[in-house]
Structure formats: C-alpha cells, structure tokens
Amino acid sequence: MGILENKVAIITGASSGIGRAAALLFSAEGASVVLNARGKSSLESVARQIEENGGSAHLVAGDVASSDTHEELVAAATTVFGGLDIAFNNAGTVGAMKPIADMAADEWHQTISTNLTAAFLGSRFQIPAMLKRGGGSIIFTSSFVGTSVGLPGMGAYAAAKAGLMGLVKAIAADYGAMHIRSNALLPGGTDTGMAGDQSQKEWAAGLHAMKRIAQPEEIAQAALFLAGPGSSFVTGSALFADGGNQPSSDAALILRSFLQTTSFGCSGIKTKRRVERMDEMPSTCLVKPTGQFPAPVQPVGNAPSVRSFTVAGWICKSCLSLRF
C-alpha cells in the first residue's frame, strides 16, 4: 500500500517537468489525481500513462490565473473522486526578464498573477474542500530567487515567489488547528524545458554544491514528503530541494551576468571576444563567464579593479534564446 492510498490530489503544471513527475509518483503511491495544465493533449498523455499503470486520473485544462480553473479542479476532485486531500500548486512562469524600471505594468501583473495570485485562487477553493475531509496538505512551488537571493531582471518573479512564503505562513496560521498544512517547495536547477540547452544545464550545475542539477523525479520525491504522513508536523515551512544552491557573492555575480538581457535582438553580435574592463562591454549584453572565475585583471588608468570575462553569447529580448 502506498503512502497516499485513498487520497485525492490536485496537481497544476502537470503536463511536464516537476508536475508530471509528481503526478506519476503520487499516483504510484495510491492517490487519485486531478491534473491541470494549459495544454490538453500533453495532459492526456500523462493521464493515459497513469491509467496504464493502474492509477486514476482526471484532467482539467485551463489557466491557473483564472479563478474558474481552480473552481473546476476542486469540483472535479469532489465529484469524480469524492473529495480533496492534497494540492500541489506547481504551475508557474519566469515571465518578463527586465530591470524593474523597464518592465511594463502588464508584464509585472502577468508574472504576479501566474505565480502568486494563482496560488491564492487555488487555496481559496482547496481549503474548504479539505476542511470537509478533516484536513489536508497544500504545497506551493516557490524558488530560491526572491527568498534567498535577488537576481537582476527577475524582479516580478522574485516578488511573486517571496510572496508565496507569506501566503504559506498565513494559511498555516489560519488553518493549522483545523489540520490543514501549508508548505513551500524550493527546487534548485532542474532538468526541465526551462533549464535551457546542454551548455546552460552544465553551467547551472556549477552553481550547486552537488555540481549537477536535479531530475524532476527528485523534486517530486520532496513534494511527496510534504504531501504524505511523514511531514505531519511540518507546516508554514520552506523545504529547499536545491542541491546546496545557496549562491555566494561570486555565484550571484555570475548569475547576474548570465541573466542580463540585450537590446541587440536576434541579429546581435555572435562572435566571442575578450574584454579586460567591464566598461568595455556593451551595457546590455549577456556575459557568460568561462574558465576560472573570478579572474582579477589590472585596472586601466583610474578605472576600478575589475574581473575578466569572456563574452560568450547574448539573450535576445524578443525570443529569449541564447545566441552565440
């Protein structure tokens, strides 16, 4: 018998990555699962795999930023499977990557809506259903960005993920005595579609103490812990499943350089060149450090001492793909 036997779970962002891995794992541990993502065909593939393995799944395609989606998810859990015990609010987006002053209000609102407001909307419907079952576990996918470190260009994302921690603690305070637990899961770099190409994954691996990024199944195991009875006295907490990804000042500087976007567009400079001073670099270019970091260089004239980088590529603002 699995640790989630006879439980009913909602999982958002379930069509790929961490959400898909969690859907398969929760089902394997005995839960009936209600799956959500925007794409119906990809959800159908996950549901079909669950059913082929002997599990039970129901899908609700829709945008988590819509209150109607969460109402439908909870209604499905209740009518199809008899109630709701677990909610893994996993769906999210990085959103627009710009400095705060360059970000349009609608870009800010879209990122906050998908990452934070959606969590409120989900819990607003999930909590009453869980109370009818005598309690439950609500899990939110947060991030080390905004909770441990701030990264340039990710202000809206950081604000949303930091806000999730406030929501987690508020739910724990409001409903802990009624046996509803609320926790956040904070993954490190994970091998999903958002992780980029192989070179980007290898670069990200170097930021972790374990010198690799996670597989989605590893993060799903952490979610399972928060969903199951092993975390019965855990609420209002942040579970870091990040491979030791606690950025030092140097690592944060690398991340800042890596995430800087450019206004060159897709036809931007693609050739590698060496710069000896930071002020020789285009102010908007992405700098990807190579070799040993940091590498101190001699200051030029009255310029302050700087570090040496190799310009390896740029991210285009319009398509956000790495250009070399």
Walk me through this protein's architecture.
With 324 residues, this protein is of the alpha/beta class. It is built from 8 helices and 11 strands. It has helices spanning 17-28, 40-52, 67-81, 105-132, 155-175, 198-205, 216-227, 249-259, and strands at residues 8-12, 32-37, 57-61, 86-89, 136-141, 180-187, 237-241, 273-275, 309-311, 314-315, 322-323. The strands form 3 sheets. A 7-stranded parallel β-sheet has the order 3-2-1-4-5-6-7, sandwiched between helices. It has a two-stranded antiparallel sheet with strand order 8-9. The chain is globular. The model is unreliable at 248-324 (pLDDT under 50).
Number of helices: 8
The percent range for helix content is 25-40%
Q: Count the E strands.
A: 11
Distance between the termini: 51 Å
- Biggest sheet: strand arrangement: 3-2-1-4-5-6-7
Largest sheet: 7 strands, parallel
Low-confidence runs: 248-324
Radius of gyration: 21 Å
Helix/strand class: alpha/beta
- H-E order: EHEHEHEHEHEHHEHEEEE
Average predicted confidence as pLDDT: 78
What percent strand? 15-25%
User: Given the C-alpha coordinates, what overall shape results?
Assistant: globular
